Amino acid sequence: MVRHFSIKGKLVPVDWVCNLLKAKMNDVVQNEQINRFLIDGFPRNMSNLEGWTTYGFTNDIVTLKFVLFFDCSLEECERRCLQREDRRTDDNIDIIQKRFRTYLNETLPVLQYYEQTGLLRRIDANKSQDEVFEEVKELFR
Asked: What is the pTM of this model?
């Protein structure tokens, strides 16, 4: 079902994402005795954030340490996407700019929310890969 939504270019309903995420996290905790997670790209919009809260991630399952934000200019994003060796089929100027607009409209309010809570950790991703990596390592120490 998730693949069906992806093929159609639609977002998977937030309750599905939250239930899948919760089930996988519980499974990993029980079977692998791992209780630390890095979740990439979620919550991506306010609906995701509401689901994150509604499905108990903020109290029952997760003690959120911080939200990591790689702050990068549109120009640098364009340059990197267009120059990477393993380019996606949708790596072109129009789609990259559309993704950036989506970020401004959908994701930025989530980041502002976490900034107000004091949980946002911002990395200047316009720097070199090595500099960014060093800053990220410091956050995880």
From this structure: 0.82
- Answer yes or no: are the C-beta atoms of 47 and 10 closer than 8 Å: no
Alpha-carbon distance values, 122 to 36, 71, 82, 125 (Å): 20, 6, 24, 9
Residue 139 and residue 120 in contact, taking contact as beta carbons nearer than 8 Å? no
Q: The domain containing residue 128 runs over which residues?
A: 67-141
Does 89 lie in the same domain as 58? no
Structure tokens at 128: 């070199």
The radius of gyration of the chain from alpha carbons, rounded to an integer in Å, stands at 17
Q: Single out the residue of 116, 119, 29, 27 nearest to residue 68, CA to CA.
A: 119
pLDDT tens per residue, range 44-101: 899 999 988 888 776 666 788 999 999 999 999 999 989 988 887 778 888 888 888 8
